[in-house]
Design goal:
The chain is α+β, with helices and mostly antiparallel strands. Helix content is 46%, strand content 10%. Residues 1-10 have a biased composition (Basic and acidic residues).
């Protein structure tokens, strides 16, 4: 992890390029009219911006400019009395590997990314949907979009505090950002900004700093994101956060006195066991009234008592387990970790099933072929064979399905639709343009972008073999047919479909396969195209074109996990995270 080091001494201000600074002057606030302070706002690209040379979108290493530094300094005469540092982060250029890109910038950006957002830079849905963790409930999916302004540091010399200098510094940063971004949300965290000294001997010192932080930012319109440690700001005056009174913003409530977890009958029995005046026979009688070997075991009684309790993070036992498993799925943070997910273990599945009241099957007792057969089972088969449904339930818990409809537990309706559309589009496009009848050399050159998963020798055969070219194209249609039938698009399923249900003459698909072509080369190309057009991992064209169809389908945790799904289908893991520049 890279770390951006800051020198908080006043020497940094003297090194700032003051010739490119915006200057604001105001009264110091003391009785003397001669005392004034200056706010300087400096961004790292001011020299280029002030020149006649257009601002290049890439740095000297060919990397997209992802960040702009904005610093403000307050001066009285030659002395610096306050400063504020912030970073303007271009989220849209970091979508494919948001966590890793933010980690590359600095530790503070990494903290923001991990604590608030998912792998694509979208707000953690707990902070807008969870019963309690949504806090005041004023923030939602709008935080998925636009640039991010991260206030990372504020320092005001003690003698100059309580003079509204902090307010003016942050306001100046926001004003500068309005000229640098077409749309942004600002974020601030007291854990990053304040130097909270827990060893301060002054009574309530930490509480006082925290209170001052909240008052400063809330007075400017910042409001807490759910129950997180971050406050956020939007320029949109009609946004719910701007209508919420400062006093009504969410704060950590005082912890109520803890209630005993053990139910009253158990506490009574425990007291009896320690009471020398109560006989052993009487204790046994009391236990028999509460417990039974078959049903009301001590554990059962406890579980029913705590099932609805919430912990310090406001999670029920089920939510706490789900949160822990999600961390397990995404650590170490980065898209690559999610792509490498292979499912939760049987003990985790059993815990989820117990807490959700779901009947499941022990997957360790089934062969891979049995699981694959159940994965593509029809609704008619499920209605006839009860065990099939319990196996499907177990698979959906194992692979993190949240929609209850994932085929094989991992192929969600939206993912299936995305792959189906790309299979159909590629079949139509390759059939019509430039057309199979054009010269082999032209066809291969014009379609080089879809042939990347084929060995060089096979691509050379495509130049001279029209039948192979048609077989490659037809394979797109075979994959589409399997997806329409709600079957997994793995090699074995697709080959079974081709051999059992396709009547093809001449046998162009067989010719393609016999001469070195593979199902995987076509399937991985379809995954690539789906990623490139995805709403979050790609350019968003898929949502633009098919929004009405997509919005009719349920959402699922697995909707955009292309690397995970491609590997589960038996193909080389198609990485979503990429350092290729957009």
């Amino acid at each position: 992890m890279s770390t951006a080091k800051r020198d908080h001494s006043s020497s940094d201000a003297s090194e700032s390029p003051a010739t490119h600074a915006k200057v604001v002057k105001t009264s110091h606030g003391y009785d003397s009219d001669e005392v004034q302070f200056t706010v300087e706002i400096n961004s790292q690209d001011d020299e280029l911006e002030d020149s006649d040379v257009p601002m290049p979108p890439f740095d000297g290493f060919g990397k997209q400019r992802l960040m702009k530094q904005i610093n403000c300094f307050a001066n009285v005469g030659q002395n610096q009395v306050a400063e504020c540092n912030a970073k303007l982060l271009r989220r849209e250029h970091m979508r494919r590997d948001f966590w890793a890109e933010m980690d590359e910038l600095c530790d503070e950006a990494s903290s923001l990314a991990i604590e608030l957002f998912d792998r694509y830079g979208r707000l953690n849905r707990e902070y807008c949907e969870h019963e309690i963790r949504k806090g005041s409930g004023v923030w939602g999916e709008e935080l998925d979009h636009d640039d991010i302004l991260m206030i990372e540091y504020i320092n005001i010399e003690p003698l100059w505090r309580r003079q509204k200098i902090g307010t003016k510094l942050v306001s100046a940063v926001l004003d500068k950002t309005r000229h640098e971004s077409t749309g942004f949300f600002a974020f601030a965290s007291q854990r990053l900004i304040l130097d909270l000294d827990c060893n301060d001997e002054r009574p309530n010192a930490v509480h006082e700093q925290s209170k001052n932080f909240n008052h400063l930012f809330r007075s400017l319109g910042f409001r807490r994101v759910g129950t997180s440690g971050w406050l956020a700001f939007t320029d949109n005056d009609s946004h719910p956060s701007r209508q919420l009174d400062e006093a009504h913003d969410w704060d950590v409530p005082e912890q109520p006195k803890e209630e005993p977890i053990a139910p009253v009958p158990i506490r009574t029995i425990l007291s009896s066991l320690y009471d020398p005046s109560i006989s052993g026979a009487e204790c046994v009688c009391q236990m028999e009234e509460v417990f039974s070997v078959e049903e009301n075991t001590p554990l059962w009684v406890y579980v029913n008592k705590i099932a609805g309790k919430r912990n310090a993070d406001y999670y029920t036992p089920l939510e706490a387990l789900q949160s822990s498993l999600e961390l397990q799925r995404t650590k170490p943070y980065g898209g690559g970790a999610s792509d490498r997910f292979i499912g939760f273990c049987q003990s985790d599945i059993a815990c989820l099933a117990a807490l959700t009241g779901t009947e499941i099957f022990d997957l360790t007792k089934l062969s891979d072929r049995d699981i694959w057969t159940v994965s593509s089972a029809t609704d008619e088969m499920v209605s006839r064979i009860r065990a099939v449904d319990t196996i499907r339930n177990a698979l959906r818990l194992k692979y993190g399905c949240t929609c209850g409809q994932c085929i094989g537990g991992f192929l969600s309706p939206r993912m299936r639709f995305a792959l189906l559309c790309q299979a159909e589009i590629q079949y139509d496009t390759l059939s019509e343009f430039p057309g199979i009848d054009c010269s082999g050399q032209d066809w291969v050159e014009l379609n080089y972008h879809v042939l990347g998963h084929l060995p060089r020798a096979v691509k050379e055969n495509l130049v001279t073999n029209k039948s192979m070219r048609q077989g490659f194209v037809n394979m797109c249609n075979h994959i589409a047919c399997c997806l329409r039938k709600k079957q997994l698009p793995d090699t074995e399923t697709i080959l079974d479909f081709y051999q059992e249900e396709v009547s093809e003459w001449p046998p162009v698909t067989s010719n393609y396969l016999e001469r070195g072509g593979t199902v995987a080369a076509v399937a991985m190309m379809i995954f690539d195209r789906a990623i490139d057009s995805d709403e979050w991992a790609g350019d968003g064209t898929f949502m633009e074109i098919f929004a009405d169809n997509i919005n009719q389908l349920p959402t699922c945790r697995n909707d955009h996990e292309f690397g995970f799904v491609s590997s589960m289908c038996g193909y080389e893991r198609t990485p979503v995270a990429s350092y290729t520049e957009f």
